[in-house]
Design goal:
148 residues, Nuclear Transport Factor 2, Chain: A, 6-stranded mixed sheet, 2 helices
Length: 148
């Protein structure tokens, strides 16, 4: 059941902070802590991604954190908020993700990357501790472009 109407400004800011924190952690060597941003039964789905539960998320993003040759930047914009039943909100954003690999011993910038553009459809819930966490993230790709 969907409840129409805007969410309050404080909630919007908290949800935007959650989206930004996810991107920052993945892009700045903290991917091993991404699971903290999810509910215990949270999930991530998309091309090449199928994780359910904090343990799977921790395992896969922990491996990503150890891959020091992977470089990425996640950008999001145009958030659309839809209040769902209970304490849930669906946030749909346009996303751009740039990712590539460094040569062994090389420093940034990477010489080439892949650009993926699409939508992220996130369902977030307010938890008992008052923090918002992802219940689910789904990436729908519209474009995939190889650069460099």
């Amino acid at each position: 059941m969907t409840e129409t109407g805007a969410i309050d400004l404080q909630t919007r800011r908290e949800l935007e902070a959650l989206l930004t924190e996810f991107a920052y952690r993945v892009d700045h060597g903290m991917a091993g802590t991404v699971h903290e941003l999810f509910t215990v039964d949270g999930s991530i789905h998309g091309p090449g991604l199928a994780m359910r539960g904090r343990d799977q998320i921790a395992g896969q993003f922990g491996a990503r954190a150890r891959d020091t040759l992977r470089a990425s930047r996640h950008l999001w914009s145009n958030p659309r908020f839809e209040k769902l039943a209970g304490n849930l909100v669906q946030v749909t954003t346009a996303v751009q993700t740039f990712f590539g690999r460094l040569e062994e011993g090389a420093d940034l910038p990477a010489a080439a990357c892949t650009l993926v553009v699409g939508d992220s459809i996130d369902v977030v819930g307010s938890c008992d501790d008052g923090r918002w966490r992802f219940r689910s993230r789904e990436l729908v790709i519209t474009f995939r472009i190889e650069l460099g």
